Amino acid sequence: MDFYGKDFLRILDFSEEELHYMLAAAKKFKELKHTGQSHKVFPNKNIAILFEKTSTRTRCSFEVAGYDLGMGVTYLDPTGSQMGHKESIADTARVLSRIYDGIEYRGFDQKIVDDLAKYSDVPVWNGLTDECHPTQALGDFLTILEHFGKLKGLTLAFVGDTRNNVANSLMAMSAKMGVNFIACGPNHLRPSDEIIDKCQPIAEKNGSTITITSDIAELNGKADVIYTDVWLSLGEPQEKWGERIELLKPYQVNMEMMNKAKESTIFLHCLPSFHDLNTSIARDVNEKFGISEMEVTNEVFESERSLVFEQAENRMHTIKAVVFLTLHKKEAK
Ligand code: CP
Ligand code: NVA
Questions:
Q1: Do residue 33 and residue 119 come from a single domain?
Q2: Bridge-partner residues for 226, per DSSP?
Q3: 234 lines ligand 2 (CB under 6 A)
Q4: Which domain holds residue 106?
Q5: CA 154 to CA 268: how far, in whole Å?
Q6: Rg (Cα) of the chain, in Å, rounded?
Q7: Which listed residue (10, 101, 132, 136) is catalytic?
Q8: Does any ligand 1 atom lie closer than 6 A to the CB of residue 234?
Q9: What is the tens place of the pLDDT at every residue in 124-145?
Q10: Any catalytic annotation for residue 229?
């Protein structure tokens, strides 16, 4: 399996075997890291990581993955480069690919990262767009695999804003890995027909199902993993909070929902999460709408069933695997 020079733009671009290979590489890197074994294999390489939206996990994961692999890393924030306002994406890509060995991009339209890849001579990695969040799904599936020891046949339920970027990548990843996927949320926030139509035949081929429902009772006795995400994503207007809270309140992940699923059901969240009032946004929302916990209750978030911090750590190991595999030239036999 050879990923040298390839971009990492969306889960659907890769086969089941390729995704398994990436997970296996991530496992190896995790072991190396945990046992303190140096793996600075790219001392002469440098990568640029571009963020048009804010980030903690993805930025830190790319930075540490880069340093661990022995590379130089340049972080450009929304105000730190000419991209978009003074220089086109195409020109930026052509400049950066003369200087760097790989480029990460987080931003808005999927077309931007697709264009970056089109015009760049070096691998481009998608660190989140409005449409998808593929490195997230990879980290999540490493977490699920480590916990259950398998993927095929499990059921992952994404509850809440089921048409968002994280849900889209999880549907694609589930279909590829033979995991049953339930998108459970209000009809107003249904996944697009386009993504369902792409994933459905893949799921069928791999012996799994995709269920789109607005009924939380569909999770009862079925879901091995209950996954949620914020009710308003980066880049969406703050004025939408009221409408979203009304639509999504019935889909809050709480202990009652967890207990009705299975005794063994785990909770996942890509983070950041509004599970208490310890953030300024949560306090603003609380003042305006009187709600103190949003997509997940603090009880579930802090419970033993919650693997959210393992999941956050796995972002780094999986991102390292993607960066390594796409920059590593295999020796000719
Ligand atoms: N889950 C995730 O992508 O987190 P950041 O927005 O902090 O990168
Ligand atoms: N759906 C969220 C994911 C953050 C990691 C967002 O786009 O803000």
A1: yes
A2: 157, 267
A3: yes
A4: 11-132+315-327
A5: 14
A6: 20
A7: 136
A8: no
A9: 999 999 999 999 999 999 999 9
A10: yes
